[in-house]
Amino acid sequence: MPHPLGPSTHRPTRFRRAVLAFTVCAATLLGAALLPSTARAADPPLRELAAAKGIYLGNAVAGGALGGNAAYAALAGAQFGSLTPENAMKWGSVEPTRGSYNWAEADQIVAFAQAHGQQVRGHTLVWHSQNPGWLANGGFGAAELRGILQQHIATEVGRYQGRVRAWDVLNELFDEDGSYRSSLWTDTLGTGFVADALTWAHQADPAAELYLNDYNVEGLGAKSDALYALVRSLKAQGAPIHGVGFQAHFVLGQVPATLQANLQRFADLGVDVAVTELDVRLQTPATEAKLSQQAADYGTVVKSCLAVSRCRGVTAWDISDADSWVPSVFPGYGAATLYDAGYQPKPAHHAVAVALGAGTHTSTPSPSASSSPAPGCTAAYTVPNQWNTGFTGGVTVSCPPGSSLGSWRVGWDFTAGQQLSQSWNATCTQTGTRVTCANAAWNGGVTAGGSVAFGFNGTWSGSNPVPVVALN
Ligand code: G3I
After folding, report:
1. Which tens digits make up the pLDDT trace of 222-269?
2. Are 173 and 180 in contact (CB under 8 A)?
3. What CATH number did the domain enclosing 277 receive?
4. pTM tops 0.85
5. Whose CA is nearest to atom 17 of ligand 1?
6. Residue 455: which domain range?
7. Pair (278, 373) in one structural domain
8. 397 and 302 in one domain?
9. Cβ-contact 218, 246 below 8 angstroms
């Protein structure tokens, strides 16, 4: 039987911090997207770019890798503002033996997220797959099965009350033709368990956002029509349904043209939408052309989410190509994630950054420029902290391999009345709106492939827009 996410098909909350980041690149954006990752200046962290746009950028993680793979953990913590336990919260993981729970990996992931200021998407409470043997083969009658399901939801959601922002309460309910999938649940309980499961989850954590999640529903079609009809019906019944997750396990070059329109029609029903398991698999080996197409595909998905105001975020599925589920399920396919097997960013990473606004401000030489910037050196402006009337800003000056600086000067205009009050690791002055910062005595040198950073405090009122930064 073909895998339900087979290659012939399109497969598969908002916490806005005042964190804004823009890079100033000498290379054109298109050129940068096609360059090998080692030849690009670093993009600002994706989680910061996403937060500045009012969405989250997340990823799916496993506890073992978070605890035992430093490169994996560093990316998970630094780049993503939301984590989804890839397997740790599934029923087979948390209750392998009836009445005997194992929360170790799920707890570990939630603790990691809390330590890194990340939200958690809980995945998943009711599914036809990855159920423990005692449940799948238990032969339970309807009344007992219903009680087991209610207890499972109450126990798991209750345990993570206040720590899991959104739950994929029901996963993959439909077949490709839009009929309900035959499963332990539908075969025994009919379809009423859908509203019941949402209600039980809501009782266990009234603040949690409750989602239906599925694949092959990203574009218009029979399956997404069925999901749409279910969401409309649940809303009409008053069931606690808050969002729809679109898994988005795509094949290279096959992002549905109707993705944005489809997200929008669900949003118009009065629910949030999110891309929950994004990856783009390709036939290996990866080539520059395939990675370029993949970058375009990732960018399209992020831009589609940004274009729909109720789209809360995009979660990628697996940190690197070394961690991806794809090769084991689709022999001959792989390289589906944002990072290569050595945990280096792929063109898709840069495309996501660009879709989220990185590099959209083109460098314009300052009138006070006294020298040309080295090719490809960049200045990235961030606001890592902002409060009622003040903010902390930072600028990182970076050079790609092959370029370096002996001294630097960064300038910008505060166009909304912001006033610099203090700086460190640079000498900064403000005259009118114009701010100019020059390197300190000890940090004028930026090595090829290296970077230096400086910071400052300022005051603001009304708004604190990100300035266009020039490195010269
Ligand atoms: O943990 C055991 C290990 O002890 C054992 O030695 C090994 C041998 O096969 O298996 C390990 O479990 C595997 C588990 O991943 C953890 O690595 C399972 O066999 C394997 O089936 C399981 O695959 C997961 C798959 O869901 C199960 O259907 C993938 O990691 C996970 O990425 C994938 O995620 C799903 C989403 O939940 C729903 N949407 C589709 C998506 C991709 O299939």
Report:
1. 999 999 999 999 999 999 999 999 999 999 999 999 999 999 999 999
2. yes
3. 3.20.20.80
4. no
5. 87
6. 367-471
7. no
8. no
9. yes
